[in-house]
Amino acid sequence: MQFENSFDVSLPPDVAWRRLIDIPRIAPCLPGAELTDVTDTGEFLGRFSVRVGPVRLRFDGRARIVALDDVARTARVECEGLDEGRRGTVMAVVDFRLEPTAAGSRVVVTTDLTLAGPITRYVRGTAVYRDIAAYLLQDFAETLDQTVAAEADATGIAPDAGGPAPAVDGLHVLGRAIGSAVGLRRIG
């Protein structure tokens, strides 16, 4: 199934693009994601968990950037994962493109998602997956914006100055993870 989502960030396109392709730096901003390793071949290994109704799915997987165009600000990422309960697999090809806006940048995300195995019975229909993806991307965008603002406050370096990036605010991400673990998160 294929669907498209978008989100806005308050960064100029050049800065937003550098941030968005820095996977180790932005992975903590995605709710439910944990980057565990980056291989010598450029693969990103990690875990991802999401609640679908009463069911929490946890995937161990890998992702890799298979196409990257810094001039056009487009990228393609291929992802695959296996649910830790062996309830199925997920494969996705995700295309990103960045567009300038008056307030910063818009990231348009097109996802071609394939689910296999028993996990497909938990949710039927593309609309539910699109809504989950939209919620996750919105949460990601808000966390990214908050992180950028916190970095600017802590370092005195404006987000568009291109200076070195401090670490992501782990306390904020931890708070979101705890809220998710106890079921306080609304999906959809």
UniProtKB/TrEMBL annotation:
Origin organism lineage: Bacteria, Pseudomonadati, Pseudomonadota, Alphaproteobacteria, Hyphomicrobiales
Highest rank taxon of the organism: Bacteria
The protein's name in its UniProt record: SRPBCC family protein
Gene3D superfamilies named among the record's database cross-references: 3.30.530.20
Record CDD domains: SRPBCC_5
